[in-house]
Amino acid sequence: MTRGLNKVLLIGNLGRDPDLRYTPSGKPIATFTLACTRNWITSNGERRDATEWFNIVAWGPLAEICKQHLVKGSRIYIDGHLRTRTWEDQAGQKQTTVEVVAKEMIMLDNRPGPVERLESQPEDLYDDAE
Hints:
mainly beta; five-stranded mixed barrel; CATH 2.40.50.140; single chain
């Protein structure tokens, strides 16, 4: 059997403070947005940049750490995978979103002390995921 690869590596800044909630079974889940800007120089020598926004989801202990330590503007590294989620809204319309499920997060802000490397545990990645 051949295996595929679904891996996302991002460095960017939080667009808002993480939102922490709990599933009915008590698993923590944090959600936040991450802005990643890329820069380039056009053939005319003009400097350009473009920002992409990503929806990030963290589960388990990693979710709680994100809520405790991250704020809007925090610079972080995320290692995770893409997940497409579909649901029906209140009007009965089918909605779809693509999000990054975080496996690992490293805080990159200039703070005293070592850079923290935080990982979720494998069992936390899919439990209660809708």
